Amino acid sequence: MKLFLIRHTALQVPSGICYGQSDIDVASSFMDEALHTQQKILNTQFDAIFTSPLQRCLKLAIALNIGEPLVDNRLMELNFGDWEMSTWGDIPRDIFDAWAHNYANLAPPNGETFSQLQQRGVDFLEEILAHYPNGNIAIVTHGGMIRALLAHVLNMPLKGLFRLTIDYGSITQLEFGVENSVPKINFVNL
């Protein structure tokens, strides 16, 4: 099975805002960005397309025009809890620094850890692998989720998560069921 992890396009949000699971709309450049992303998968037949319920993902899943999007809440971005829609500068420095040094295991107040995000992503992935052992599956989701899934496949500690660049509208392809069932990363951030 080939899994196409597609990050949503750019957002209509000022820089420096912590938005995680806040339902932010897409930028005015959405149609151009969606078309650019669609061109990358134009000749691929998909067996299913899954998406985060947040409008920035759902809009792209619809615009890609590759099938009826199946919404799954497990594909949402990290829940930043009380930090949602705050500027990063408004978060007390000592609290932010503690989180930044241990985001895998430390949650923002009323939020979740990256380990929790990764676990719900892995749960989703295992379910998809069981239901679609062959074929092509598109997943429109968020940068944090894509990084967490890559870290899982690479058996990489979450502390290295942000060394992985995942641009808006980019596609990362994972392949399962080849080379003794070891997942293969065909490309990242295309």
SSE order and pairing:
Blueprint lengths: L1 E6 L9 E2 L11 H11 L7 E4 L3 H9 L6 E2 L14 E2 L5 H9 L12 H18 L4 E6 L1 H12 L16 E5 L8 E4 L3
Parallel strand pairs: 1-6, 3-4, 3-6
Antiparallel strand pairs: 1-7, 2-5, 7-8
**Low-confidence segments, ≥5 residues, pLDDT <50?**
none
Kindly name the structural category. Answer: alpha/beta
Number of separate strands: 8
Rg measurement, Å: 16 Å
Please state the average pLDDT score: 96
Number of helices: 5
**Largest sheet properties:** 6 strands, mixed
Q: CATH homologous superfamily - what is it?
A: Phosphoglycerate mutase-like
Query: Helix share of residues?
Result: 25-40%
Global geometry: globular
Summarize the structure in words:
The protein is α/β, with parallel strands linked by helices and 190 residues long. The chain has a single domain, classed as Phosphoglycerate mutase-like (Rossmann fold, 3-Layer(aba) Sandwich), CATH 3.40.50.1240. 31% of the residues lie in helices and 16% in strands. It has five helices and eight strands. The strands form two sheets. A six-stranded mixed beta sheet has the order 4-3-6-1-7-8. The protein is globular. The two termini are 19 Å apart.
